[in-house]
Amino acid sequence: MTEANARAAIEADLVKVGALADGDIDLAEAALALAAIERPESTRHPYQMHLANIAEAMLVGSAAPEIKEGGQAGLDARCRLLADVMAGQYAYRGDRMNYDDLQNADLMRVIDRRQGLPVALAILYIHAARSQGWQIEGVNFPGHFVIRLFHDGKAAMLDPFDGGRVLETGDLRQRLKTTLGDAAELQPGHYAAIGNRDILLRLQNNIKVRLIQEGNLPRAATIVERMLMVAPKVAALWRESGLIQSRLGNLLAAKLALTRFLELADNDSQRHQVARLLQDINQRLQ
Q: How far is CA 251 from CA 255, 259, 270, 277, in A?
């Protein structure tokens, strides 16, 4: 298969993800596809095998009697197994030395290097838990992505960046104050779950933001296009795509993206701003 055909196949996979209901998205497989599009000449098979190996290690560990216990004891045992498999057996850890390295948001490179950003590591932890049918979700905690594992009416917050450590309320409060200031206090919104699609967007957003900071708008535009493949109904992404394309001088692409934004958006203020920008673009295209 040529590189162009391989890239087209990966893009088709991402478009399929964009058409799925959120709960039907295979988070790790979708993140692999987002990584693979950067290197279409490579095969995803070794990485898919790694995901299968993680699931097998979880299956072996799940045979322990304490995993099947109810209440807090069973939840604690599941937290330990996740940490033992991911941080112990497979040595996954947060990259504290080069946090902003773009490799940390590329799941293939995260698997290669066994280190990455909180959200990238969380995808692997979520995969491990879901491979056993466990209920787990991402949590959009301010400043630091964490996960929440459920069992028998109990829940625990874990930090994949810190070896799967269980976070107590005091830990979360301290993290919040570090991020938002000493006056900040925990609120229900800080514990809000984040869906599969939004986890993928958050992963890609880390790459996009760093590219914009570097002034690499052409690559940032490409990342936004990939985000739109997996989230074609997110109006804000169409607006961002249009604004970036406009800055790059790609007026037709900007017009198409901003027109799509107007079809989806319900924010009147942004709609008026975009409508004015579209008028300007149309005049420049004449």
A: 6, 12, 19, 11
